[in-house]
Amino acid sequence: MTNIPDKTIKRKAKNDLIRFLTFNVNGIRTFFHYHPFSQMKSSLKDVFDYFDSDIISFQELKTDTLAISKWGKVDGFYSFISIPKVKKGYSGVGCWIRILPEDHPCHNTLKVVKAEEGITGLLTVKVNGQQIRYRDDVNLGLGGYDDLGITDEQLLLDLDSEGRCVMIELAYNMIVICVYSPANSGLTDEGEVFRMTFIKVLFNRIRNFTKMGKNVAFMGDINICRDLIDSADCLNLANINLQEYNTGTMVESKYYSDAVKFILNPDTPHRKLLNMLLSDSIIPELADDGILVDSTRYIQGRDRLKMYTVWNTLKNTRPSNYGSRIDLILLTDVLKYNIKDANILAEVMGSDHCPVYADLSFESISTEIKPSSSKIPKFEARYKFNLMNYDVLSMFAKRSKTAPLPRISNSSSASTSNTVKYGMAKKEKSIDTFFKITKTQRPNRTLSTRNAGPDKGISLRTTRISSSQSDAKSLKDIFGSPPLCRHGDVCILKTSKTSDNPGKKFWTCHKSRGDPNDPDSSCGFFKWV
Questions:
Q1: For 409-449, what is each residue's pLDDT tens digit?
Q2: What pLDDT was estimated at residue 512?
Q3: Measuring CA to CA, which of 17, 36, 192, 282 is 20 to 30 A from 100?
């Protein structure tokens, strides 16, 4: 892993490129705890400018309607956000489209024509005081609702109940689909049925769009690993040594049958469904009917290995780059010649996933697009979540209704009158100064240690050192000296969390799990205390 870039991740060229970027942030609030985003004061505009991106999709927002004002009103961007209808603080997908200046060559390209929440067209949006279903109004819905494979409307509504998809139609005859596909992490039968139904309906909708003559950009956390070379676990299970076969082409040539079995495995039918959508699938019979191309693989080539976008946090596999690739930007096959750059940004932290981007040239096409006078879609966050008139004073007003002042007893009226006046004055001051930036005074630990005098500082430091030495000696007395692993390094002590041996201590290699043939990965040493 390389160092995290502090400066903007610039495009190779500026005016003629549109950058698509997808990132599963695994909680948009905690995302801002990581460098360099921790310096951006929760500003999405600063984040988008940092990535130098125009069409951005974030997944797993894990937000709610109370916090939407922060993410739904971003200067210089249209915002489209879908959150779960029932579960709170779960899932959630956002798509932001940059509003380019009128003299920009791609201004008309990014003009938003329509926007739709969900994959079925059965969700509603408020228009003139009434809730209208997208599929019931040609001015709202994107179309392509026929032959989705499911006719049960309640089942279809269930698919759209978890805030997993946002669709945007741009003036350049393009539909941008931002998705957080179900993963069935619990490995339940019910979860697998939901996952497969969601994928089938979504993929049928994508095919319908292409039949309508639309271009498609399908981006997000697809939660499907398309090829064997995109899964470290599966390469390991197949006993494929990446030290010996160090390119993806070599792996797929030597282990072609394993690569095909990976895709056609009946226990993982979602892989086959995805490959049936891809014109660059390694299985010719599937590629023949494919309509989308994997932008990252198209630019980086099949030689590149370990191009992972997600890692196991619990097993700490990111340092050894032992993960899988499930975050993709797929584009209509005819657009592959417009792709000028595409890559993963594995060095960017903030989540267990990393961002993925693709730069497309639209300058020659933009000149053919006539200026659009379309109104902003009602699904835009300012309308959808009624953010147009949202302000701080109204927020305080709402709170004052639900939190009346306590009653004051007669016996203490004289003594409390000043208290009430003081409280009111304090409130007025806080509102007046709400928009002023104030510096919070923090204790200067370095200064206080110096002021304590040299003897106290030395005494404190000596106490800490002796305490650490004492703790180490106590551990050694209880568990004995740590053994050496197969690397010859001192092992670390861990606690078992399995149901068979809960709380039992064991020694293990200090390095993170990874490719068994990688010397920087765990050697697999294990010993019960």
A1: 444 444 444 444 434 444 444 333 333 334 434 334 333 33
A2: 75
A3: 36
The pLDDT assigned to 466 comes to 52
Note whether 381 and 81 are within 8 A (CB): yes
What's the pLDDT at 172? 87
Of the residues 50, 255, 353, 359, which is catalytic?
A: 353
Give 360-384 pLDDT, tens digit per residue. Answer: 998 666 545 655 556 889 999 999 9
Residue 246 marked in a binding site: no
Task: Pick the closest to residue 309 from 3, 6, 24, 8 (CA basis).
Answer: 24
184 is known to lie in a ligand binding site: no
User: Residue 119 to residues 159, 328, 403: CA-CA distances in angstroms?
Assistant: 8, 18, 41
Question: How high is the mean pLDDT of the chain?
Answer: 83
Beta bridge partners of 343: 357
Give 131's DSSP letter.
Answer: E
**Residues 172, 180, 245, 255: which is the catalytic one?**
180
Annotated binding residue 230: no
Q: What tokens does 250 get? A: 């070599």
Amino acid at 377: P
- Bridge partners of 231? 324
Q: Would you call 270 a catalytic residue per the annotation?
A: no
For residue 219, give the nearest of 183, 174, 176 by alpha carbon: 176
Q: Tell me the C-alpha distance between 478 and 285, whole Å.
A: 62
| Selection from 79, 1, 33 nearest residue 382 by Cα | 79
353 an active-site residue?
yes
Residues 436, 156: Cα–Cα separation, whole Å: 48
223 vs 179: CA distance, rounded Å: 10
Closest CA to 217 of 105, 108, 54: 54
Domain-wise residue ranges, the chain: 17-223+326-384, 468-528
Architecture category of domain 17-223+326-384 in CATH:
4-Layer Sandwich (3.60)
104 is catalytic: no
Are 303 and 248 spatial neighbours (Cβ–Cβ below 8 Å)?
yes
Q: Tokens 């040299």 — which residue?
A: 454
Using CA atoms, how far apart are residues 287 and 277, in angstroms rounded to an integer?
Answer: 8
353 is in an annotated binding site: yes
Which contacts of 485-489 are long-range, i.e. CB under 8 A and separated by 24 or more positions? 485/509, 485/510, 485/523, 485/525, 486/523, 486/524, 486/525, 487/511, 487/519, 487/523
Supply φ then ψ for residue 403, to 5 degrees. -130, 75
DSSP state of 178: E
pLDDT digits (tens, 9 = 90+) for 464-517: 445 555 555 565 666 678 888 887 888 888 887 776 676 778 888 877 777 776
The answer to whether 341 is annotated as binding is no
